[in-house]
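A common beginner's mistake is to predict each chain separately and then try to dock the pieces by hand. The better habit, illustrated here, is to supply every component at once so that their relative placement is modeled jointly.
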Amino acid sequence: MAGLSFFASLCIRRFFVVKKACPLFIFFIFIWGTLFSLVACTESSDPEVIVYPRDREFYAIFPNDPKLGDSIEANLATGIMMIVHPGGHYTLSFGVDPTHEAPKMQLFRSYKQRDGERYGLSKMKTLEPKISGDHYVFSFVCEENERSSWVLTLVEDDTYYRGKISDVKFEGSGSYSDTLSLNLISVGLIDPIEGAPSMDSLSRLLISAFRKNYTSIVIDTIYVNYAEKHPSLGEKYPADRHWHAESPSGDMTLSELGNWPAKGVTEALDIVLVHRIDELNSLGYAGLFASNLIGGERSTVVVGSHVLSNAGERPLAADEIVKVAVHETGHFFGLKHTTSTWADLESYQDLSILEDGFEDTPYCPELLQSGLYKKGSPSAKSDYSMPGQVYRMMDRSAYGVAFDEDSCPDAYLFMFPVSSDKSMREFSRQQLKFLKQSLMLIPH
Ligand SMILES: [Zn+2]
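With all components supplied together, the output reads:
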């Protein structure tokens, strides 16, 4: 019903504009009565038909993701959301269908309505493709001041393009720095961590792991901050109380703590350390392509010093906390798991995304076949705001299924979905290239 009322209001608005415009043209015709005016009126009264997206929820894509999934092909003409950043240069391409005319692309910007709750769409521009080989290529620059979500439709004869869509690629390049700083934010009481007697020593382990593994970018500095010292929120996070993420705070990413005015910290990646995450077997989480280094919603990576299991709390050693932070930061910049779990598939709402799409990362069909299953986020689809799903890293004990994860050919990669003692040691070359491309698109 919400969709219906949305389109009803659009139709009313368009009708209203046309009604107002016509008497104006009649007035001109009456005064001058020239053929020129008649032609002008004919042209002006036949404006471009705006082909709004069919639905209110969209599959979202972000640049340079090598595995977009076949839901993107299926929905590209009728409405797909793109996550874009200021100054980014983007191309979207797909195969030519010779049985159809070349489509045009209509681009829409999503904006928050006055009530601050709902989102609307405003038409920005219409693009025509260039043809490169046997592909259509649409190119555009994001001229926004901040990270934005745009929606596109493909148009043929004033309605959705009906040609076959295949081999979709969305690429983006930015010119922000390839240097990243980290900001470790300790929240509430953190019990002594095995292997890191102080927060400073944990921060040294973190930065050396980031420098060792994020080799395609420059890891500059790590700052350490304490939530209890936050100028306005400090009282909410007392230093003598364990903080459980997801409760009692409504802001599960604790993003309100990020980006507070401390010198140099404002454009660092905020890694929030809490006592534990209040979800069974959850070691950490971050938004997929959260891509926000300047504070606010989805600007943090959350890790726990303990994990909640059926047997109670298990403390994590420093090495394990660091590993979780490295993995979750990969998601933050847009890396998917090398092998999808059932939870991922549920979250993507696309059964074609069985692996991450990189040619140099193996994947492990046996992992999926083993029946490993954890409930994921509700949906990869998004309304006009940013996609809301977060990607959790799960403790291997969570699955309770007899399966040797370490036998998987991708277990050595950081983006393997299950943590174990032997797993997660490096990124692949293509993943590293992707990470650098993402960082350079993100204002910081
Ligand atoms: Zn993960």
